[in-house]
């Protein structure tokens, strides 16, 4: 499973990139709004830093509007992936983008049927939202298992991005259940690297080293 970062914050992207683990970036309108920057300019900056897929979401709600916006976004850089919401209009737009060889990430996926439809419309990626399903008492991870099995059974090559990740266990379980990618907020990426026994181990090594070298 590959790691994407789920943010529009440049410092977080730089920091995650410097770890050598970053395969891509996902943004959404809420994440961009939080930054208070020009959307296209920020995308230009991100695509210069990261060579992997950078998802940029359309705002229009009708297919024609999504297609127009998506074409503009795709023109920013070759690694832009147009993020399209999972609606009937979105499916029409995904089909058009697929025919134009523009990559798409179908977002706000909450059921297996939505994922199947998106894949058949030609989506490059589907993004099931784990955390938001958990929030309403469903099991987001079960959806990853189901989509993963369905795509395997039917030889579908659309990649599954585990999204709305809230904690490290979401990451491990998404990998076990067959997600190709997890898009992860920076605070959770940092948590993945931490273990109290690692910290204790470093402290002990350093103490022992100091005691030896000073005696
Ligand atoms: C993914 O592409 C979405 O931007 C994101 O994972 C949504 O996460 P949230 O539910 O924490 O807002």
UniProtKB/TrEMBL annotation:
Active-site residues, record numbering mapped to chain: 83 (schiff-base intermediate with substrate)
Entry keyword annotation includes Transferase: yes
Localization terms from the record: Cytoplasm
Reactions accelerated catalytically: D-sedoheptulose 7-phosphate + D-glyceraldehyde 3-phosphate = D-erythrose 4-phosphate + beta-D-fructose 6-phosphate
Cellular component, GO annotation: cytoplasm
Record GO biological process: carbohydrate metabolic process; pentose-phosphate shunt
UniProt cross-references to Gene3D superfamilies, sorted A to Z: Aldolase class I
E.C. number: 2.2.1.2
Matches recorded under HAMAP family: Transaldolase_3b
The protein's name: Probable transaldolase
Gene: fsa
């Amino acid at each position: 499973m590959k790691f994407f970062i789920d943010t529009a914050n440049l410092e977080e992207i730089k920091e995650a990139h410097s770890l050598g683990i970053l395969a891509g970036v996902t943004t959404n309108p809420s994440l961009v709004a939080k930054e208070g920057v020009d959307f296209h300019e920020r995308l230009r900056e991100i695509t210069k830093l990261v060579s992997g897929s950078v998802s940029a979401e359309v705002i229009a709600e009708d297919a024609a509007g999504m297609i127009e916006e998506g074409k503009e976004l795709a023109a920013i850089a070759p690694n832009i992936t147009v993020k399209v919401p999972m609606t009937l209009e979105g499916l029409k737009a995904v089909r058009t983008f697929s025919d134009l060889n523009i990559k798409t990430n179908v977002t706000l996926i909450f059921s297996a049927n939505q994922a199947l439809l998106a894949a058949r419309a030609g989506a490059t990626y589907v993004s099931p939202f784990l955390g938001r399903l958990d929030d309403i008492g469903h099991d987001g991870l079960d959806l990853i298992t189901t989509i993963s099995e369905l795509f395997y059974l039917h030889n579908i090559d659309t990649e599954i991005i585990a999204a709305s990740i809230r904690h490290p266990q979401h990451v491990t379980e998404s990998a076990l259940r067959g997600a190709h990618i997890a898009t992860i907020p920076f605070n959770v990426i940092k948590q993945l690297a931490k273990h109290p026994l690692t910290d204790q181990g470093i402290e002990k090594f350093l103490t022992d080293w100091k005691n030896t070298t000073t005696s």
